Amino acid sequence: MSFSINKEDIANFHQDYRNHPNSSVLENTVTKNGVRNASFNWHSIADNSPHFSIDLKTGDVSDQKQSGRCWMFAALNTMRHDMQQKFNLPDNFELSQAYQFFWDKFEKSNYFYQNVIKTAKKPTDSRKVSWLMNEPQNDGGQWDMLCALISKYGVMPKSAMPESFNSSNSRGIDGVLNNKLRHDAVILRKMINEDHANQEAIDDQRRKMLNENYRILAYTFGEPVDHFDFEYRTKKDNKFHRDTNLTPQKFFEKYVGWNLDDYISIIQAPTADKKYHQTYTIDMLGNVVGGREIKHLNLPMDEFKQLAIEQLKNGESVWFGSDVIKYSETKLGIMALNTYDYDKLFDVDLEMTKAEALDYGESMMDHAMVITGVDLVDGKPTKWKVENSWGNKVGHKGYFVMSDAWMDKYCYQVVINKKYLSDDLKRDYAKSPVVLKPWDPMGTLA
């Protein structure tokens, strides 16, 4: 039976509004100032002061500008933190995000073609094909995807491939590239379904498409160099250093030196379809065909946070993914559940569990940052220090305070060195992953 709103209902709603305490004052306040300003709780400032018992020194914050590269910035920041300590690099040293951006978009193109070919026999209105065509590629990614890029292409300092207009303002190239990829999908599907082309013909067409994509990206970001010199002055004694004729792979090996297989993704997904101490992957998610695959180990929140604390205690920052917009005050750099009193302002119940928010689309991971500190009281975390990638004009010179309760509710992923895992957790991570659907919230890109 349908339910329609009638005049009597509206009259009753109107009367209830008039009877509600302070309706006229609240209407004036909200219409004048907006929902967020009207509901801001100024006590949250004092509750989330930027002081931490464990506080890593990590230098200047970076700025992703008008692009969705937070996952890339956050990952490269964890590496540069380590490099700054090892080689006494200046606070403003950065690894090239534009270099990774170029290869990520190029590899995502090929990954898209792979999925188009795999789903070519499905109708265009099937959920998988619709999901694939909705956004053939975007700026976002996950930790394992950056590891796949670095394993293949290495890294380089920002001085070897600096930012371009398009790397800092990616909307234009995203629109063109997605147009091109959908156009190419039409051709590939027709070759398979109508022309019944053999594999050799499909591969030749795919190479032609990738050649065009390479040219588009080289015009957009500049063509990456394959050799470069690394020049820098040390922070403490101002000594000049020059290392010549490096490849990106050699640079990573010499200056970063991480075994990327040691760094794994831990998720916190309390939904009924995901058991704890089990690993998961996501169908059709990735960037490098034949490269590292997405793999998550799902853990309860207490174990999740303890691993992050152990890594911080050892002087290592922590890549993490969260739903950054929820109850977050950007200018002041506060991420706390008491930042905005929406429910009190409107006198409504907005409470959902973390699992309900994931299942019903109210929350998902949409941004990656770096945890660089934690405040422990009697061994328990009360708040966390966060390095963002939105420049130094927000928060505390680019750093944010995340309350522990906010972390419980809106943090979904951390990257942890396997050496901090117990033997039992290492055995858990070794399990074969359960394959989740492409649209699962644990497959969203930060």
From TrEMBL:
<dbReference type="InterPro" id="IPR038765">
    <property type="entry name" value="Papain-like_cys_pep_sf"/>
</dbReference>
<keyword id="KW-0378">Hydrolase</keyword>
<dbReference type="GO" id="GO:0004177">
    <property type="term" value="F:aminopeptidase activity"/>
</dbReference>
<dbReference type="InterPro" id="IPR000169">
    <property type="entry name" value="Pept_cys_AS"/>
</dbReference>
<protein>
    <recommendedName>
        <fullName>Aminopeptidase</fullName>
    </recommendedName>
</protein>
<dbReference type="InterPro" id="IPR004134">
    <property type="entry name" value="Peptidase_C1B"/>
</dbReference>
<keyword id="KW-0645">Protease</keyword>
<dbReference type="Pfam" id="PF03051">
    <property type="entry name" value="Peptidase_C1_2"/>
</dbReference>
<keyword id="KW-0788">Thiol protease</keyword>
<keyword id="KW-0031">Aminopeptidase</keyword>
<comment type="similarity">
    <text>Belongs to the peptidase C1 family.</text>
</comment>
<dbReference type="InterPro" id="IPR025660">
    <property type="entry name" value="Pept_his_AS"/>
</dbReference>
